[in-house]
Amino acid sequence: MKSTILGLFIFFLCVQSASAQTSVGTAPTKAEQEILDLSKAKWLWMADKKLDTLNNLFHDKSVFVHMSGSSNKTREMEVIKTGMIWYKKAEIYSASVNIFGNTAILLNDIDLIAVVGGKEVVNPFMVTEVYIKDKGKWKMGSLTFSHLRRPVKLKL
What we know:
This protein is α+β, with helices and mostly antiparallel strands. The protein has helices at residues 2-24, 30-47, 51-57, 73-82, and strands spanning 58-66, 69-72, 85-100, 103-116, 119-134, 137-147. The protein has one domain (27-147): Roll (Nuclear Transport Factor 2, Chain: A). The chain is 37% helix and 45% strand. The longest helix has 23 residues, at 2-24. The radius of gyration is 16 Å and the shape is globular.
């Protein structure tokens, strides 16, 4: 119980720190900007179902965590291909990135418009993306959606 509370405290502290860094307007480094740009492009590739591009972006050992469970690269690619989930549009409100050697961790505060099971839904998420630099290229190692308690900001 104590470790869970400590973990949540550290998570919220990191989220607040990331938001503070973003609101201060500190210019990102070249590497940080590369990750921010890659993440923005990824949302468009997912919306447009650019499977070849996503296949190159996702590391072979990548993992994906959704509200309903987790999956691997093969399953996520199938979900996108079949339209089981159509990541229609991500409205990004803030993004921050921290790079540790060959690993980058990006946090996005978004509203996601998605079509799930033929029904359009909008959810507020904090999305954690982990990128690993592999042979000089950034590859996505993990994509995790954490549902936020805030209301949807997007005006539809």
